[in-house]
Amino acid sequence: MKYAYYPGCSLESSAKEYDLSIRACCGLAGVDLVEIPDWVCCGASSAHATSHLLSIALPAKALVQTEAMGLHQVIAPCVACLTRLKVASMEMDEDEKLKSNVEKVLETPYQGNVKVRNILDVFLNDVGLDRVKMAVEKPLKGLKVACYYGCLLTRPPHIAQFDDVENPHSMDDLMRAVGAETVDWSFKTDCCGVSMSLAETDVALDLTNKVLEGAKDAGADCVAVACPLCQSNLDLRQKDIGNKFGAFYDLPVLYFSQLMGLAFGATTRDVGLEKVIVNPFPALGAI
Amino acid sequence: MKAAIKGDVSFFAKEIEAACGQDVLTCYQCRKCTMGCPMAFKMKVKVNEMMRAVQLGRKEDVLAGDTMWWCVSCETCATRCPQGIEIVEVMDVLREMAIKGEYYIPVESMKSFHEVFLNSVRSYGRLYEMGFAMDLNLALLDPLKDAGLGPVMFSKGKLKLLPHKVKNLESVKKIFENVKKIEELQE
Ligand code: SF4
Ligand code: SF4
Q1: Does A155 lie at the interface with B, CB-CB under 8 angstroms?
Q2: How many domains, in total, are found in chain B?
Q3: Nearest 5°: CA angle at A88, between B19 and A106?
Q4: Residue A131: its pLDDT value, please?
Q5: Mean per-residue pLDDT for B28-37?
Q6: For a Cys-Cys bond, which of A29, A241, B107, B127 suits B69, CB 3.0-4.6 Å?
Q7: CB of B85 within 8 A of CB of B23?
């Protein structure tokens, strides 16, 4: 199983542990990742809020590079990148004129046969739950996880084409496959407000607080996420939330791949556990 | 009651449809969009109200309004709209129109956010997170905002002090230049 790998900007710095843990999990599960050389930022929400053509051309660059590597599938672990890459590939499939404009912008032709893959989907459907279970060396016994999907993993459904849009369970399935318990809760797909987090912090805190409160009330020991934006927002802002609402949750927010990596026998260093802000070691103590 | 509306008011909805293919005229005001919108509490004009104003051809009001600037593109509304309107695409078009038409932007900080973000991509080919946060604070005239987060992130090895420039920066500059050229040709 060989895939082009598009880490994206967050995985280079604030979400380094996502990158580390994905590489560790993939290595242990036989998924071969080849990083796209000299990849360029996908433009995320900003290109898309200002120029449509730019918002397609930036992520299209990664698709063109994947083709040049002779590969047909590209994995983008960051859900914001994932969405932008998917939109670019779908819109160019549907719209010849757009495709030719993008080719002009990039000054390269694009054949159009690159599939953009979601990392959860790769573990669920390419590796498969059976092989995930087989790879487990240290099951996460007794750990209660609140799986948080946020906005873009399942929305909008015609682009994400993944899981149940109002009540997704793919991450829950993976977490249970590696021995954890998952809690039922109501905020799996509520927005955490991260896109407002830097510019309108106070507004974002209201949204972030609801998600954390929901997870805590459901009795979770930690929150599992698959998006660097969700992770940094939910993890970094707990102090601000404490100051604003008087609620100090002290709830570790981990990438699903960090938990899965630990279950696969990777060390805490391999999965960058020390990089998480809210100390996860007490919650993981028993494991 | 006198009819307050004269002539064909659907021009604005048609303009939006031409730009993104979304037909706002099909909205029948069920309000599911607003009910699920996490940002509705900040919007002076709620999502369904904005859709109605578009239908009524109130272009000036909509473009000067705050709805699209509070929208966080969470896609909840679009997922639930029974008429299948991709509301976020409508929001994108409205943001583009408001910027191009130099409308007053009621949530100025969000405009700065997008500008500063794209400057980083233009200069380095990738987002330089720390530079981005500092430049954004300068643009917001609040240079010490979130200063406490910096050391925490740094101690966790989560902040790069220097940007990573892509090697082929020329190709990135080209992307921005070519987009501009093609967009100017189309106008
Ligand atoms: S959900 Fe769709 S049809 Fe209902 S009010 Fe909103 S835009 Fe209109
Ligand atoms: S996409 Fe925007 S308008 Fe729609 S629900 Fe989310 S924040 Fe509200």
Answers
A1: yes
A2: 2
A3: 95
A4: 96
A5: 97
A6: B107
A7: yes
Ligand 2 pocket mutation pick from B30, B33, B37, B44 by most atoms within 8 angstroms of CB? B37
Indicate if the pLDDT at residue B3 is higher than 60: no
Question: Of A245-259, B28-42, B167-181, which range is least confident?
Answer: B167-181
CA separation for the pair B132, A150 (Å, rounded):
24
Task: Establish whether the linkage from the previous residue to A156 is cis, with ω within 30° of 0.
Answer: yes
The predicted structure's pLDDT at residue B81: 96
Closest residue to atom 3 of ligand 2, CA basis? B71
Over residues A16-42, the pLDDT tens digits come to 999 999 999 999 999 999 999 989 888
Residues 34-63 of A with CB under 8 A from B: 38-41, 43-54, 57-58, 61
Cβ separation B127–A44 shorter than 8 A: yes
Query: Would you place residue A46 in the very low, low, confident or very high pLDDT band (cuts 50, 70, 90)?
Result: low
CA distance B130 to B148: 13
Query: Can you tell me the ipTM of this complex?
Result: 0.80
Domains delineated in chain A? 2-117 (1.20.1050.140), 137-284 (3.40.50.11810)
CA distance A6 to chain B (A): 12
**Which residues does residue A222 pair with via DSSP β-bridges, in sequence order?**
A145
- Report pLDDT for B155: 63
Pairing of strands A253-255, A181-182: unpaired
* 3 state DSSP class of A118: coil
Residue at a domain's end among B79, B100, B121: B100
Tell me the Cα Rg of chain A.
19
Containing domain of residue B155, as a range?
A: 108-186
Q: How far is the CA of B32 from the centre of ligand 1 (A)?
A: 6
Same domain for B14 and B96?
yes
- Centre of ligand 2 to C-alpha B40, Å, is 8
Q: Which residue of B has its CA nearest to A16?
A: B158
In a domain, B3, yes or no: no
In a domain, B50, yes or no: yes
Give the nearest chain B residue to A207 (CA atoms).
B38
Does residue A249 register a pLDDT over 80?
yes
pLDDT-based confidence at residue A152 (cuts at 50, 70, 90): confident
